[in-house]
Amino acid sequence: MRFDEILQKLDETLEFCNSLGLSGIVKDSRFVQYRQHIDSLVQILASRPPGESLPTDVHEQLRTNHLRYVISLTESFELVLTLPYLKTVDPKIARQKLKKVLAGPFLPTDEDQNSNEARNLYLNLTLPQNLPLQDLNRKSASLLTLRLSYRKNSY
After folding, report:
1. Which domain holds residue 103?
2. Does residue 57 lie in a domain region?
3. Residue 30's closest CA among 71, 63, 85, 65?
4. Looking at residues 105-132, what average pLDDT do you find?
5. What crossing angle do the helices spanning 30-47 and 3-19 adopt, rounded to 10°?
6. Is residue 45 part of a domain?
């Protein structure tokens, strides 16, 4: 998936979150920051003529913020893959889970015991998208993960 496609699908996912009444949480979430980083990458690529190197200052910006760009792309990509599934579950459950997933600091290294629930639940939602499942379709695997997330100490 191209960066501009991730950006478009992230917008769709955040709009879905807004439709669940999470607009206040969305606007303060790390995913809005991720969106800004991805949009920056899209703009950089769109402004560069094919075959030309990046200007030195842009190259330095990318190098300096490499981890932020990688985290933005990775977490956004994985979240947008869950949207088709999230649209099939009870909106109250989707809202409850997304409310928690949207929280948390920008970088995983900035987490502490009070803020790591967001990424742990995020992992529960996105893991089925990343596993080669032979006998389970993605919907069944996502449902299984969602059910497991209700278990005490499952995240």
Report:
1. 3-150
2. yes
3. 71
4. 61
5. 150
6. yes
**pLDDT score for 121:** 57
Cβ neighbours of residue 101 closer than 8 Å, sequence gap 6 or more = 79, 118, 121, 122, 125
**DSSP labels, 84-142:** HHHTTS-HHHHHHHHHHHT-S-SSGGG--TTTTHHHHHHHHHHHHHHS--SSS-HHHHH
For residue 96, being part of any structural domain is answered with: yes
Q: Is 155 inside a domain boundary?
A: no
**Mean pLDDT, all residues of the chain:** 79
With 60 as the cut, is the pLDDT of residue 90 above it? yes
Residue with more model confidence, 108 or 60? 60
> What confidence score (pLDDT) does residue 84 get?
87
Written as one letter, the residue type at 117 is E
Give the Cα separation of 45 and 138 in Å (integer).
33
The residue assigned the tokens 């649209």 is 87
Each residue of 30-44: b (16+ CB within 10 Å) or e? bbeebbebbbbbbeb
The reported pTM is 0.73
pLDDT of residue 147: 45
- Number of domains composing the chain: 1
